[in-house]
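ESCALATION

Customer reports they have been waiting on this structure for their group meeting. Please prioritize. Original submission:
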Amino acid sequence: MFPPSLEPVEVAPEHLVDRVTELSRLAALRLAQVEAAGPAAERARQLADHVRSYLLPRARSLDAPLLAVLLGPTGAGKSTLMNTLAGRAVSRTGVLRPTTREAVLVATEVDARALLDDGPLSTLVSRIETVTEGGRGGVAIVDAPDIDSIERDNRALADALVEAADLCVFVTTATRYADQVPWDVLARVRQRRLPLVVVVNRLPPDPTDASAVVSDMERLLSEAGLGEQADGALAGAGQPGDTAQADGTGSMAGFQVIGVVEGELDASGSGLDARRVQPLITRIDALAADRDERRALAARALAGALAGVGSLVHVVADDLEHQSIEADAVRRIARGIYDEELRSLADELRGGRFLREEVIRQWHAFVGADQITRLFSSGIGKLRGTILSVVRGTPPAPVAAVEAGATSDLSAVAMAHAAEAARRTAARWSERPITAELVAARPELWSPGPELAATLEARLTEWIAAIASDVQVTGQPKRSLARGASFGVNAAGITVMLSTFAHTGGLTGAEVGIAAATAVVNQKLLHALFGEAAVKEMIDRARRTLMETLERTMDDDRGRFEALVPAADGLRELAAALRSTVTELPNQRPG
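Update from on-call: job pushed to the front of the queue and completed.
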């Protein structure tokens, strides 16, 4: 009954169900990670559908109803054959029938519920029309949409039914049997090692011509590796009486093609002459009548599916490993670009030239640069002693205005670099196959995230507040700061903040004018209040904290890109788990 490579599975049911359940979970996880279309996405969908729709339900029960799927191209006569098998008109017929959108299921009410409620067809309920008249207990037959339909959803439904089938009946015609699209579907039937019956419809009436078509079909099937998948009870069976050769039916070792001559219809015209497909009708009737026969075919189909699933799993695992390499590559691209823009931003901040001149002038007017400069000629000690009187002679500290202006300027320059990083990353990702469609579907990736500006401004406000806290802590033991209390902790914080940008190193009045002058005064004033060492520590902390804030913000924006690509380590781990699970399946033979 079974070819050597397709022996029934001898394994504890619990172990088999556990393994297949785990494989189903991993296949679904893989499918959820695939957004882009393409061969890898199709293989992921195929694996998930096959394990969920067929392997898991069949592993749980060999007694579940058998599902025979009629497949074929447009106008091949599937519906006519369906009506013949059902013994009544249950499916619309016609030579040109590319608009069929639903599959037609012929089954008893009990079997239909078993298949549709929580069985292999449960995810396809909305696309299946159920007919209970003509149903045979234990065997359900479904007429699938045309596999070469111009409607993509129709082709997808036909593909899904292939994954759920126990037996495939492939229907074609004398003029279309060599078309490429049907053979692409038959390649999946071969991968699944699915029991197969072939019906060639509309053969020419001349016996020699009919035999030539059947022989050529047998040759193509054999070359495609489909010969060993013939249903054992049909292999070698001839047509009734002496008409076998006249109607073109042929047989070869382990395989048979059923031929039907053009125009051989029943009296109603909606079905074939039943005598021409009697071997198939007899086989289905025998399955319906014999539980052991059904279990044998189910066991054979399951064994073939278990033996055949390995090759698909290993290819999907290969896809995952390839994707992990690509994921690493595109993440490095994003990280490299954002790091470059962060370094460029740091260089721009070190010069202090991004601050608007009116912001610096406001602060310059407050610190009374001319008066303080003259006092420095008397020495630091004298300045410390007279700081109170100096500060009292200045206008009120424009803390809020300068803080808002500096925050706004700093945010603007940082957002400009974030925008450039986003633009460059989107452009580079558009060139990579793994991310091109992701970027095309998300035009917002070409600019910074919509919340980034508000987030950055809030963080910069927190940064300035942290500087004021640092000033207060540093100045507690300093009597000079206490004596200059009217100067204020917040004003001192603004002085430190400005010093993180505009400092004396490398600056001259000829180069930056008011910025250089303000930088000199700020540093000397801070030295007078806190001492040179303390000032250096505060400014270093402020700069370090600022760069950490900016780095965190740039990382957040880069995260929009990275969130679209699964982590490479996770992809490799999933690939390994898939391989491990499939090698633990019984009778597993990849290849």
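Sent to customer with the following note: The radius of gyration is 39 Å.
Escalation resolved.
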